[in-house]
């Protein structure tokens, strides 16, 4: 079987390049190996497949018919080999993902856990950052994908919505609004918002401005040179309030409470963004896992 496949491969390559010598170079074998294999194939078939000359070789009419008959088989074998190779690579590969939401809980954490369980030999390299930075890294090939808010098209990239999260207000437990189970924007009209200067601060800042404008209000926002974890502690100390995704409900900060915003407009979609030509099999397995998890999550919510 292996010898027959080798003969057919040599046949196809030699027919394409018109030379046994060049076919041998392309197949990384000696020219004598190609010549012997094709001579043996001709002997087995009882016909001449090539016309041989000093200038090279070309298929005989019988050779052209035979190659046309076996070409579909060769294409199927090559496809099967690529698939097997991709599966092997996916089992021990690397996936580089840029995120701007917490991994402490929610869909993203469940996705990473589920994928790691299915593919324990694949390394998942998770990097924090902002939307613009991550999308630029995707386009430059430094990231396999970015997880961003929204579901709009991004030029030159594939985008797929995976899950949604409700926006929550983070506030100190001593705040009068902490007694309410849920909040709406009119409740926040007189509040002092804190956002970080680094990511995801600029996106949160823009969100507060946009949603406050829906209620004809210009919010009081202060930027802090602090990471998100530090910002949450500043909120718990009574310096202001901020907005976070639902994933932060899994994070326990002393003196901090989270209350959901009730408006439908405060349910934010999260999407994966990647290049169409990305052929990393480990990444495509992650995307497949995310889609399966998304469907499972949707079914669970449908039953609650």
Helix coverage percent: 40-55%
* DSSP strand count: 12
Work out the radius of gyration.
30 Å
- Poorly predicted ranges (pLDDT <50, ≥5 residues)? none
What series of H and E elements makes up the topology? HHHEEHEHEHEEEEHEHEEEH
Mean pLDDT, all residues: 88
Q: Given the structure, what is the number of helices?
A: 9
Gap between N and C termini: 56 Å
Largest sheet: 5 strands, mixed
Short description:
By secondary structure, the chain is α/β, with parallel strands linked by helices.
Fold and architecture overview:
- This protein has 304 residues and is of the alpha/beta class.
- The protein is 45% helix and 21% strand.
- The protein is built from 9 helices and 12 strands.
- The protein has helices at 2-17, 20-27, 31-45, 61-91, 106-118, 131-139, 201-213, 228-236, 281-302; strands at residues 50-53, 56-59, 94-99, 123-128, 145-149, 158-166, 168-172, 192-196, 220-224, 242-244, 256-260, 267-274.
- The strands form 4 sheets. The protein has a 5-stranded mixed beta sheet with strand order 4-3-5-12-6, with helices on both faces. A 3-stranded antiparallel beta sheet has the order 10-7-11. A two-stranded antiparallel ribbon has the order 1-2.
- Helix 1 (2-17) crosses helix 3.
- The longest helix is centred in the N-terminal third of the chain and has 31 residues, at 61-91.
- The radius of gyration is 30 Å and the shape is rod-shaped.
- The two termini are 56 Å apart.
């Amino acid at each position: 079987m292996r010898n027959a496949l080798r003969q057919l491969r040599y046949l196809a390559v030699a027919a394409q390049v018109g030379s046994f010598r060049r076919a041998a170079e392309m197949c990384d074998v000696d020219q004598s190996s190609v010549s012997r294999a094709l001579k043996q194939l001709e002997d087995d078939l009882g016909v001449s497949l090539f016309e041989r000359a000093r200038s090279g070789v070309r298929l005989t009419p019988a050779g052209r018919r035979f190659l046309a008959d076996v070409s579909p088989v060769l294409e199927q074998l090559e496809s099967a080999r690529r698939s097997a190779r991709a599966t092997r690579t996916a089992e021990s590969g690397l996936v580089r993902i840029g995120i701007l939401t917490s991994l402490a809980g929610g869909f993203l954490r469940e996705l990473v856990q589920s994928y790691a369980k299915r593919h324990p030999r694949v390394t998942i390299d998770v990097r924090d950052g902002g939307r613009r930075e991550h999308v630029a890294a995707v386009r430059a090939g430094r990231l396999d994908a970015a997880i961003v808010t929204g579901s709009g098209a991004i030029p030159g990239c594939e985008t797929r919505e995976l899950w949604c999260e409700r926006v929550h207000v983070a506030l100190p437990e001593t705040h009068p609004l902490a007694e309410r189970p849920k909040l709406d924007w009119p409740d926040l009209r007189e509040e002092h918002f804190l956002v970080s200067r680094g990511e995801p601060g600029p996106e949160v800042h823009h969100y507060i401005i946009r949603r406050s404008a829906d209620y004809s209000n210009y919010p009081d926002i202060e930027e802090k040179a602090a990471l998100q974890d530090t910002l949450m502690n500043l909120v718990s100390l009574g310096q202001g309030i901020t907005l976070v995704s639902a994933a932060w409900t899994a994070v326990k900060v002393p003196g901090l409470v989270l209350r959901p915003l009730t408006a439908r407009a405060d349910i934010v979609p999260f999407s994966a963004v990647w290049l169409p030509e990305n052929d990393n099999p480990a990444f495509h397995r992650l995307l497949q896992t995310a889609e399966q998890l998304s469907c499972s999550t949707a079914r669970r919510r449908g039953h609650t």
